[in-house]
Structures are given as C-alpha cells and as structure tokens.
Amino acid sequence: MSSSVLRGVLAPRLLLAHAVALVLVAIAVALGFWQLGAWTAEREAQAVDLTQETPQPIADVVGPDDGFPADALGRPLKVSGSWVPDGSLTITGRGPASDETGDGVWAVTPVAVDGAGAELLVVRGWAPSAADLPEAPSGPVDLVVRMQPSQADAALVDPDPGDRELPQLRIADAVQLTTADLYGGYAVAAEPTAGLEPVEVPATEEVGTFTGLQNLLYAVEWWVFGGFAAFVWWRFTRDAVQAARLDPDADSDAGPDVGPEVDPELDPGTARVGSSS
Fold this sequence. Notes:
By secondary structure, this protein is α/β, with parallel strands linked by helices. Helix 2 (12-46) packs antiparallel against helix 4 (213-246). The two termini are 47 Å apart. It has four helices and eight strands, in the order ααβββββββαβα.
C-alpha cells in the first residue's frame, strides 16, 4: 500500500468513522446471531417431547378461556370431573393416531371439569366404524389425558352439520352442538374406555415451516443493516483514499509558501517578502 493511500486511510478525520463503522457492524452481527438463536430455540421448543412428563392438574396448565398454549401440546394432564354422555360426538375418517386419517372413528365425550365451569372434549378411543362404538360412559371420572390443538383442515367439510358426526375435531364446529363452554383444545385419553382401542399421540409435533419465522427475518434484517453500514464505510474510505492520491500534500502540516526572502542591506527599500509592515 502506497504512503498516500495509507495516509488517506489513517487520516485523523477518518478514525472516528472507522470506530463508528466497526461498532455498528459488530452490533448488527451480534443481534443477528441473537435472533437466529431465538429462532432455533423456538423451533426446538416445539419439538420437545412432553408426553413422558409427570401429569399435572389441567388447571395448572390451561384454563377454559385460554387459547391453546404451545407448551401444553402432548403434555400429560390430570382431569377430574364427570362424563357428559349427551354431548358425545363421533369423528369420522380417523386412524388410531391423533395425526392420522383412516377408515375408523373416534369416540368423543365431554368431561365437565371440576371447578372450571367448562367441558373438555375427550377422545375416549378409536373403533373401526361407528357401528362398533360402545355406549358413552357417565358419572364421575379421573383421567390422564394429553392435550391437542383444535383440528382445522379446510378441505374437510361437514356434509350434515345437524348430526353429531364430524369429519374433524374442530372446536368451533363442536361448540355449535352444545350450550357448554368448551376448552380451546381437545384431549386424548391415555387409557381408552371399555370397548375402544387407544388413540396414540405423537411424541412431538412436526415443526412448522413458519415456526419462529419472525425471529429469522429479524436476524436477516440485522445482517443486511450491518452489510449496509460496512458498504457506507467502504465508500467513504475509498473516497478519502482517492482524494489522498490526487492531493498527496493535502494533510501536510507545512505552512503556506511565503516566497524567497530579500536582504534589506542589499536593497534597503525592499521589505522582506512575507513580513508584516
């Protein structure tokens, strides 16, 4: 690197610009990685297997008026209450797992949860067909269940909204068939009731494409900002270097050129050039 270029880069007037650019780029990079970590953590949290945890009382995890909490997915919960056989539903086209379709049906009966003033839809189990469903139970019950969010497949349309057979366990559809307040999600019984096969709940939910997307976009934004700051610094420095090349004496500390001196003894009438009168 030539001395003029080096002098342009290290000119005192540019030192503050170098420092500001370095700080801005460092902050942008750090914040970008922080948001990237938040994106990764959110996706990992969704994939955590909660099905093997110790059951907790449902009141400690979700209330009847709450939206479905992400940390309740698949978590074992203890439910005490009473069966409401008159509110039973049949979910058609289901397989023996909560995330499968098939030719069988789910038997669903609400439980009036003690102290909640609301009912929880409980999948009691699976059967090959509606004709194989046993009678719904009644009376007090203590259950261990695993929570699932309301199903919402837009392609599944109920051909007869007036009956108690639904193509999916969508809370918004089920609430039309009852006068009770319902929880925002449904539950799958850990042990099926008599005459039914168990419905399996996946250990983890598949992480969605858009899970944590906002954090990822924030990370990209910070890195773009850091790149822009680095670009502005490069352009500013380049212009300074070019100016130093064109005028290598621009930053010289030398004073103004005052011209040659004239000896007054040789020419008394002539003043020293550049001197004051």
